[in-house]
TrEMBL record:
Catalysed transformations (reactions): guanosine(46) in tRNA + S-adenosyl-L-methionine = N(7)-methylguanosine(46) in tRNA + S-adenosyl-L-homocysteine
InterPro entries, per the entry: SAM-dependent_MTases_sf, tRNA_(Gua-N-7)_MeTrfase_Trmb, tRNA_methyltr_TrmB_bact
Name used for this protein in its record: tRNA (guanine-N(7)-)-methyltransferase
Keyword Membrane: no
Domain of life per record: Bacteria
Short name of any one Pfam family annotated for the protein: Methyltransf_4
Length: 234
């Protein structure tokens, strides 16, 4: 098998680590994470479902899962779906691993680096959904190029999503919501089926919320919950 060359990070510009990990947390990073991590040094399987310890019918991806509240919630709700979670922030990954040590989820795999590397490794049309919730908005205009929603990453999403698959995006930052809508509108591979404001101001089904979202609400910001569908353009 051929290995993939390591390239510099393309889409992770924030802090890689916050406060120091405890010895127990570091033990989880060193001991548990390798068993759950997606290994990009070998080619992706022809069927992505083969990555999981139990049989699954489809695979979904969450980019930037934070502490993992939503990702664990969804993996528990849908045991027949495989989930891959990406989180390069070490403290968030440690929080997720602590939860999984207490309550393992055999349909969950993790990746602790730049999501663009994983997206480029995934097979074409291999995902049933991508979730991108409360990504860093990079509010300064000179940093807009760092926003994860951009033409190159939409190309990646279009390549790995099956026709009819969902790309879900949530944010409390109006300028990033408008930015995302403008990029989707200019991109033929996705449809936005919303027909009224209720469609994007109503949380997703069984939405558990996140700590970041709770803080946004306390500070008076309103969230938008956008859902786009991968168009079948063949």
């Amino acid at each position: 098998m051929t290995s993939h060359p390591v390239r510099s990070r393309e889409a992770f510009f924030g802090r890689h680590k916050g406060k120091s990990l405890t010895a127990w947390q570091q033990g989880l990073i060193d001991g548990l994470l390798p068993d759950l991590a997606v290994d990009l040094s070998t080619p992706a399987p022809a069927r992505l479902e083969a990555l999981f310890a139990r049989p699954v019918e489809a695979v979904r991806l969450e980019i930037g899962f934070g502490g993992g509240e939503h990702l664990r919630h969804e993996a528990a709700r849908f045991p027949d779906v495989g989930f891959i979670g990406v989180e390069p922030f070490v403290n968030g990954m440690a929080k997720m691993l602590a939860a999984l040590e207490a309550d393992p989820l055999p349909n969950l795999r993790l990746y602790a680096d730049d999501a663009t590397r994983l997206l480029d490794w995934l097979p074409e049309a291999s995902l049933a959904g991508i979730d991108l919730f409360y990504p860093d908005p990079w509010p300064k205009k000179r940093h807009f190029k760092r926003r994860f929603v951009n033409p190159r990453n939409l190309d990646r999403f279009a390549r790995v999503l099956r026709p009819g698959a969902r790309f879900r995006f949530a944010s409390d930052i109006d300028t990033y919501v408008n930015w995302t809508l403008a990029h989707i509108d200019a991109y033929e591979a996705f449809d936005w089926p919303a027909t009224s404001a209720r469609d994007w101001h109503t949380p997703y089904e069984a939405w558990p919320g996140t700590r970041y979202e709770a803080k946004a609400f306390r500070e008076g910001r309103r969230a938008a919950y956008l859902t786009f569908l991968r168009r079948d353009v063949a």
